[in-house]
Amino acid sequence: SAVISQKPSRDICQRGTSLTIQCQVDSQVTMMFWYRQQPGQSLTLIATANQGSEATYESGFVIDKFPISRPNLTFSTLTVSNMSPEDSSIYLCSVETGRTNEQFFGPGTRLTVL
Amino acid sequence: TQLLEQSPQFLSIQEGENLTVYCNSSSVFSSLQWYRQEPGEGPVLLVTVVTGGEVKKLKRLTFQFGDARKDSSLHITAAQPGDTGLYLCAGAPGTALIFGKGTTLSVSS
Lengths: 114, 109
Known about the structure:
The structure holds 2 protein chains of 2 kinds. By secondary structure, chain A is an all-beta fold. Chain A is built from no helices and 11 strands. In chain A, the strands form 2 sheets. In chain A, strands 2, 4, 5, 6, 9, 10 and 11 form a 7-stranded mixed sheet that branches. Chain A has a 4-stranded antiparallel sheet with strand order 1-3-8-7, with no helix packed on it. In chain A, β7 and β8 form a beta hairpin. Chain B is 0% helix and 51% strand. In chain B, strands 2, 4, 5, 9, 10 and 11 form a 6-stranded mixed sheet that branches. Chain B starts with a strand and ends with a strand. Chain B is globular. The chains are: A mainly beta, B mainly beta. The A-B interface holds A 1, 4, 31, 33, 40-45, 48, 58, 92, 94, 99-108, 110 and B 30-31, 33, 35, 40-45, 48, 50, 88, 90-92, 95-102, 104.
């Protein structure tokens, strides 16, 4: 398993601004992921954060809106750009340890956009 | 599109009752995971099933993987208020996990 922390745990932001969410893992991992969980919903994968190369985005998510950095094997950031109220969600990072697709999640960042 | 259909979506029961949550797909998965999420926290991995027909037990929780590896179930015996939470099944048809819509379980004392 892995211990994952996220900052901030929650934030309230104004429309049109951007927020960067940090994800720190206590060990080196190859695969890191970013998910969005809208209120009362399940998890939707935003992108896979690749170390040393651009993130791989899922359908419906673009780099201009959700730029991702992965400077090393223990850290990643997700920026939510030019926010609107529709971006209000919980954003979660996760890591895969290599065993049968098992993933371990951070505690999430609860974002409210006014 | 490969989907995981989870049912029921909501379940409200009394302490001591038994329940079963189902996760179904038309696609074959190499493995399926079950997660539990409490409010304000990230999902926590409960179990991974990899072999068709496999049954795993975790205290009062029993997980089964279908013979064809297209479906799975979670059975809770004698539910307790501490079992309250969102239960999610997830599978990886490729490299990325896809999640079912989840089952919100509420157990009253």
